[in-house]
Design brief:
Number of strands: 3
Strand order of the largest sheet: 1-2-3
Structural class: alpha+beta
Number of helices: 3
């Protein structure tokens, strides 16, 4: 099956509108490449449109996703909560050794200006 950008753009637009989301982006790996789509506004106050390069501020919602994924890895036996974070993510917390179980609520996540390069 071939990826249809028009179909997925229409779907993204419809879902965004139905759920009253100001703006959204979508990246899908299909047919051996990454397809990027954007919909809506990056900021309602300025009217700036969302683009595939837009960076959205997620706030603390990422903590829920991270905790869920960590616990799925624990359940699958692929991660031990007593493992030092620096063994999993070298260079993230230099000079410190918190365990996965402890977390480090003062450590910054990816900075807002950073965008992963796939």
């Amino acid at each position: 099956m071939t990826f249809s950008p028009a179909h997925w753009q229409s779907r993204l637009d419809a879902l965004r509108a139905a759920h009253h989301v100001p703006g959204a982006t979508l990246a899908v790996f299909a047919d051996g490449r990454i397809h990027e789509l954007a919909s809506g506004l990056l900021h309602r106050g300025t009217g700036v449109e969302a683009t595939t390069d837009s960076v959205f501020q997620l706030g603390s919602i990422a903590k829920i996703y991270t905790a869920t994924l960590v616990m799925q890895l624990v359940d699958a036996g692929r991660l031990d909560l007593d493992t030092p974070v620096c063994e999993i993510l070298p260079g993230v917390l230099p000079g410190r050794r918190p365990r996965v179980r402890q977390g480090d609520h003062r450590a910054p996540a990816a900075q807002p200006h950073q965008r992963p390069h796939l």
